[in-house]
Amino acid sequence: MTENKKTKQYDLEDRTLEFAKRVRRFVRELPKTKSNYEDISQLVRSSGSVGANYIEANESFSKKDFVMRVKISRKEAKESRYWLILVETNNLYSLEIERKDLIQEATELMNIFGSIIRKSE
After folding, report:
1. Above 90 in pLDDT, residue 1?
2. Element of type H or E holding 89
3. What's the CATH number where 83 sits?
4. Which residue range forms the structural domain that includes residue 96?
Protein backbone atom coordinates (compact mmCIF):
# COMPACT_ATOMS: atom_id res chain seq x y z
CA MET A 1 0.00 0.00 0.00
CA THR A 2 1.36 3.40 -0.91
CA GLU A 3 1.79 6.08 1.74
CA ASN A 4 -0.78 8.30 -0.01
CA LYS A 5 -3.43 5.55 0.02
CA LYS A 6 -2.64 4.75 3.63
CA THR A 7 -3.02 8.45 4.59
CA LYS A 8 -6.35 8.73 2.77
CA GLN A 9 -7.71 5.67 4.58
CA TYR A 10 -6.47 7.00 7.90
CA ASP A 11 -8.06 10.39 7.20
CA LEU A 12 -11.42 8.75 6.46
CA GLU A 13 -11.14 6.69 9.65
CA ASP A 14 -10.52 9.95 11.54
CA ARG A 15 -13.36 11.69 9.72
CA THR A 16 -15.87 8.95 10.55
CA LEU A 17 -14.70 8.95 14.17
CA GLU A 18 -15.16 12.72 14.37
CA PHE A 19 -18.64 12.34 12.85
CA ALA A 20 -19.64 9.87 15.57
CA LYS A 21 -18.20 12.14 18.28
CA ARG A 22 -20.04 15.18 16.90
CA VAL A 23 -23.29 13.20 16.86
CA ARG A 24 -22.76 12.27 20.51
CA ARG A 25 -22.16 15.91 21.47
CA PHE A 26 -25.24 16.93 19.46
CA VAL A 27 -27.60 14.42 21.08
CA ARG A 28 -26.56 15.48 24.58
CA GLU A 29 -28.10 18.88 23.79
CA LEU A 30 -31.37 17.59 22.31
CA PRO A 31 -34.66 17.92 24.21
CA LYS A 32 -35.37 14.84 26.30
CA THR A 33 -38.74 14.04 24.76
CA LYS A 34 -40.26 10.58 24.67
CA SER A 35 -39.96 10.34 20.88
CA ASN A 36 -36.34 11.55 20.93
CA TYR A 37 -35.16 8.78 23.26
CA GLU A 38 -35.52 6.00 20.68
CA ASP A 39 -34.42 8.16 17.76
CA ILE A 40 -31.31 9.28 19.64
CA SER A 41 -30.44 5.69 20.46
CA GLN A 42 -30.72 4.72 16.79
CA LEU A 43 -28.72 7.76 15.71
CA VAL A 44 -25.88 7.03 18.13
CA ARG A 45 -25.71 3.40 16.95
CA SER A 46 -25.74 4.16 13.24
CA SER A 47 -23.26 7.05 13.48
CA GLY A 48 -20.76 4.83 15.29
CA SER A 49 -21.29 2.00 12.83
CA VAL A 50 -20.21 4.20 9.90
CA GLY A 51 -16.61 4.29 11.09
CA ALA A 52 -16.56 0.87 12.72
CA ASN A 53 -17.48 -0.79 9.44
CA TYR A 54 -14.97 1.31 7.52
CA ILE A 55 -12.22 0.17 9.90
CA GLU A 56 -13.38 -3.42 9.32
CA ALA A 57 -13.22 -2.79 5.56
CA ASN A 58 -9.61 -1.66 5.85
CA GLU A 59 -8.79 -4.89 7.68
CA SER A 60 -10.68 -7.15 5.25
CA PHE A 61 -9.05 -10.20 3.71
CA SER A 62 -10.69 -9.97 0.32
CA LYS A 63 -11.93 -7.38 -2.14
CA LYS A 64 -15.45 -8.79 -1.82
CA ASP A 65 -15.38 -8.36 1.97
CA PHE A 66 -13.95 -4.84 1.58
CA VAL A 67 -16.76 -3.80 -0.77
CA MET A 68 -19.41 -5.33 1.50
CA ARG A 69 -18.09 -3.44 4.56
CA VAL A 70 -17.92 -0.15 2.66
CA LYS A 71 -21.51 -0.73 1.51
CA ILE A 72 -22.50 -1.19 5.14
CA SER A 73 -20.70 2.06 6.02
CA ARG A 74 -22.65 3.84 3.29
CA LYS A 75 -25.90 2.32 4.57
CA GLU A 76 -25.13 3.42 8.14
CA ALA A 77 -24.32 6.97 6.96
CA LYS A 78 -27.66 7.06 5.14
CA GLU A 79 -29.43 5.77 8.24
CA SER A 80 -27.67 8.39 10.38
CA ARG A 81 -28.93 11.07 8.03
CA TYR A 82 -32.47 9.73 8.43
CA TRP A 83 -32.31 9.84 12.24
CA LEU A 84 -30.76 13.31 12.16
CA ILE A 85 -33.73 14.54 10.16
CA LEU A 86 -36.17 12.84 12.51
CA VAL A 87 -34.93 13.99 15.95
CA GLU A 88 -36.67 16.95 17.53
CA THR A 89 -34.66 20.11 18.22
CA ASN A 90 -37.57 22.32 19.31
CA ASN A 91 -36.33 24.64 16.55
CA LEU A 92 -33.40 25.80 18.67
CA TYR A 93 -31.14 27.72 16.30
CA SER A 94 -27.80 26.25 17.44
CA LEU A 95 -29.18 22.70 17.26
CA GLU A 96 -30.67 23.32 13.84
CA ILE A 97 -27.32 24.61 12.55
CA GLU A 98 -25.46 21.57 13.92
CA ARG A 99 -28.12 19.22 12.58
CA LYS A 100 -27.75 20.76 9.12
CA ASP A 101 -23.95 20.38 9.30
CA LEU A 102 -24.22 16.76 10.47
CA ILE A 103 -26.69 15.93 7.70
CA GLN A 104 -24.24 17.44 5.21
CA GLU A 105 -21.40 15.36 6.65
CA ALA A 106 -23.49 12.17 6.50
CA THR A 107 -24.32 12.95 2.86
CA GLU A 108 -20.67 13.56 2.02
CA LEU A 109 -19.67 10.29 3.70
CA MET A 110 -22.35 8.46 1.69
CA ASN A 111 -20.95 9.96 -1.50
CA ILE A 112 -17.36 9.07 -0.59
CA PHE A 113 -18.32 5.48 0.21
CA GLY A 114 -20.35 5.29 -3.00
CA SER A 115 -17.29 6.40 -4.96
CA ILE A 116 -15.08 3.84 -3.22
CA ILE A 117 -17.61 1.11 -4.04
CA ARG A 118 -17.82 2.09 -7.72
CA LYS A 119 -14.02 2.13 -8.05
CA SER A 120 -13.65 -1.19 -6.22
CA GLU A 121 -16.27 -3.26 -8.05
Report:
1. no
2. none
3. 1.20.1440.60
4. 3-120
